[in-house]
């Protein structure tokens, strides 16, 4: 049997000097990839409403790639007093290729019935979308956040 003894050291050198650095570069690139590669929030507008009414949320968004994700909504008074007026979250499957604007009542969007009973005042929402297990779970979850306009809840007249 004739085996060349230099093949094994050559393969080891190839692994250590080529494959391993390439794997490190690819993992670092995946780790640094922002959530906006999957989801771009665009603009979020919440319409003014009267007490007892459910404000309407209009969102322009781009879902570039399909992903399992979670969103969280926190509604704050303006100026902030340290207390969340209402909050909600949900986990769902986002389908890539959706570019249409989306409208929904605030209670449905935030998944919190308290949002329909906001007292008179000015409010804004902070919304975050999280891409769960990107790149088959080899890197941490990715999050992108946005803040809405300031909207008013007015007292009912008469």
From TrEMBL:
<protein>
    <submittedName>
        <fullName>Uncharacterized protein</fullName>
    </submittedName>
</protein>
């Amino acid at each position: 049997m004739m085996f060349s003894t230099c093949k094994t050291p050559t393969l080891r050198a190839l692994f250590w000097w080529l494959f391993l650095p390439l794997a490190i570069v690819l993992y670092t690139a995946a780790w640094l990839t922002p959530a906006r590669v999957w989801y771009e929030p665009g603009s979020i507008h919440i319409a003014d409403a009267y007490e007892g009414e459910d404000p309407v949320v209009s969102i322009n968004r781009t879902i570039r790639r399909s992903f399992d994700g979670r969103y969280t909504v926190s509604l704050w008074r303006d100026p902030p007093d340290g207390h969340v007026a209402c909050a909600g979250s949900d986990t769902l499957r986002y389908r890539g290729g959706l570019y249409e604007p989306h409208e929904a009542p605030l209670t449905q969007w935030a998944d919190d019935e308290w949002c329909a009973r906001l007292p008179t005042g000015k409010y804004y929402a902070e919304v975050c979308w999280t891409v769960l297990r990107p790149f088959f779970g080899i890197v941490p979850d990715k999050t992108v956040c946005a803040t809405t306009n300031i909207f008013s809840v007015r007292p009912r007249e008469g």
